[in-house]
Amino acid sequence: MKLNNEKINKVLELLRAVQQEVNDTIKQEQEACQHSNIAECPYQESTYYSNGQPPIRVCLDCGLAEGGWSFKVLFEKSVPLSPRGISRELLFKLKQGDMV
């Protein structure tokens, strides 16, 4: 359902189109990337009544990120790794698209 205001509807449609172009570009660049510039946020131990958080890696070239106890995408496509340390806060600022 649209508003009765054509000016607002037009701007919202432009915003949707730009966001789709951003998403498509990110996906294309992540698929083409060699993921040779990786940063890693290491395993975070559990604290009182909380679960530990698994390690997360992000490609600093395309923003692809993956987390969990075993890495697949960034390991398979990348050169032998010696990932740089990075904070979780910074990692989530650099991450683009969904986590794999």
Features:
4 strands; 100 residues; four-stranded mixed beta sheet; 13% strand; 2 domains; alpha+beta; 39% helix; elongated
Shape: elongated
Our estimate of the beta-strand percent is: 5-15%
How big is the Rg? 18 Å
Structural class: alpha+beta
Description:
The chain is α+β, with helices and mostly antiparallel strands. The protein folds into 2 domains: 32 residues; 67 residues, no CATH class. Helix content is 39%, strand content 13%. Strands 3-2-1-4 form a 4-stranded mixed sheet, with helices on one face. It is elongated, with a radius of gyration of 18 Å. The model has no long low-confidence stretch (mean pLDDT 79).
SSE map:
Blueprint: H1 6-32, E1 38-41, E2 56-59, E3 65-67, H2 73-77, E4 84-85, H3 88-94
Parallel strand pairs: 1-4
Antiparallel strand pairs: 1-2, 2-3
In short:
This protein is 39% helix and 13% strand. The protein contains three helices and four strands; from the N terminus they run αβββαβα.
